[in-house]
Amino acid sequence: MINETYKAMLQGKSVIRELSEYATARGAEIGYENVFDYSLGNPSVPCTQDYTDAVIKLHREENPMALHGYSPSLGNTKVRGIVADSLNRRFGMNYETKHIFMASGAAGALAHAIRCVTKPGDEIITFAPLFPEYFPYVNTSGAVLKVVPADTKAFQINFEEFEKMLNPNVAAILVNSPNNPSGTVYSEETLTRLADILCAKQKEYGHDIFIISDEPYREIVFDGKTCPYLSKFYDNTLSCYSFSKSLSLPGERIGYVAANPACTDADLIALMCGQISRGIGHNCPSSTVQQAVAEVIDETSDMSVYETNRNLLYDALTRLGFEVVKPQGTFYIFPKALEEDAKVFCMKAKKYDLILVPADGFCCPGYFRMAYCIDTEKVKRSIPVLEKFVKEEYGNS
C-alpha cells in the first residue's frame, strides 16, 4: 500500500512552481520575452568565471578517481576546513573543520539541522512571511511547524505573538534573514531581543532551544549594508547555507550546516548529520562541486542587477499606490495587493501576462511576491504593463 501522507501532498502542489510552469507554457505561445514572469527565485546572473575555471581545472588536472569518488559522509575534509576558515575570517567566529557538514544546498542543510535538534512531536516556531516549503521540511521530520503572524509594518519579528507561542514543547526556532519573500534583513536589535528571550526560556524550561538559521540570501544585501550573522548573537545556532544564490549555482545543490562552536554538543552536530544522512539518503553532495566552491569561497556573482531591479520596481509600485516595505536584500519584493484577496488580484494580473505569486502560502494573505531575478530590460518593459493593469482593473494611475 502506498504512503497516504505523500499521496495527499500531491493535492498541495507549489503555487510558485505551478505559476512558473504556466509562464513557460504561455511563453511558448506568445514568446517568453512577452511574459513578465516574477514567479520563480532562480538567479539570473551567471556564476563567476573563476568558478567555471576551477571546475575546468579540476576535470583537467585532478585524478578522476579522486574527483568523482564518494566524498566522506561529512563532506570533503579539506573543503570543510576552508568553509570554517572563511566564516571565521568574515564573521569573527572560531569554527573548526569538525563544526561543518557539507549538504546538498540549503534544503539539505535544513533537513539535517531540523533532525539534529528535534524529535517527533517537538515544535519548531518560525515567522511569517515564510518560504512555503518549510512545512514539508519540518512536518515530514516528525516535528510540528508553528507560525508567528507577520509584522506587516516592517517584516521584523512580531515579538508579542512570538512570546505567546513559546512553551516547553518548543525545541527550535527557524529564522530566515534576509527573508524570502519580504526581502527584509533582521536588524541587530531584533536578533539581540530574540536571543535574550530564548536564553531566558532555556533556563525556564530546563532544555536547549536551538535557532536554525536559513541563510541562502546572506550575500544579497543592498545599500552598502551587510546581514548580521545570527551565530554572533546566540550560542545555540545552526547556520544553514547554500551557494545557490551567492554564486548562482542552484542546480549544483551545494551548501553546509555550520554548528556554532559554542552550542550544546557542538563537536557532535556534524557527526550526527552524518548519521541522519543514513536515514534520509540526503548524503554525499557532488565531490566536484565541493572542491570547486572551495576555490572561490569568498567570491560572489555580480549581483548588482538585483539592487537595480529592486529600485525600479519599488519606485513603480509606490508610485502606483501599493503599500510595500522596501526590501533590504534577496531578489524579492512583497507588496500588499490592491484588493483583499491576493489570489484574485494575481489571477487578474495573469490576463496582462504579469505572473505574480499570491502570498497565502507564505502565511501572509493579502500580499504577493515578485521575484525580480530577471533581466533589467524586462523589468523596465514590465512597468508600463503593470501600470496598464492597475489602471484598467483598479482605476489607479
Furnish the topology, listing elements before pairings.
Layout: H1 4-9, H2 15-30, E1 36-37, H3 49-61, H4 64-68, H5 77-91, E2 100-103, H6 105-117, E3 123-127, H7 134-139, E4 144-148, H8 159-165, E5 170-176, H9 188-205, E6 210-214, E7 237-242, E8 255-259, H10 266-280, H11 287-295, H12 304-319, E9 332-333, H13 342-350, E10 354-355, E11 357-358, E12 368-371, H14 376-394
Parallel strand pairs: 1-10, 3-4, 3-5, 5-6, 6-7
Antiparallel strand pairs: 2-8, 7-8, 9-12, 11-12
Helix pairs in contact: 3-11, 6-10, 12-14
Radius of gyration: 21 Å
Strands of the widest sheet, in order across it, are 2-8-7-6-5-3-4
Q: How is the quaternary structure best described?
A: single chain
Structural class: alpha/beta
The total strand number stands at 12
Q: Biggest β-sheet, characterized?
A: 7 strands, mixed
On the 0-100 scale, what is the average pLDDT?
95
Tell me what you see in this structure.
The protein is of the alpha/beta class and 397 residues long. Helices cover 42% and strands 12% of the residues. It has helices at 4-9, 15-30, 49-61, 64-68, 77-91, 105-117, 134-139, 159-165, 188-205, 266-280, 287-295, 304-319, 342-350, 376-394, and strands spanning 36-37, 100-103, 123-127, 144-148, 170-176, 210-214, 237-242, 255-259, 332-333, 354-355, 357-358, 368-371. Helix 6 (105-117) packs across helix 10. 46% of the residues are buried.
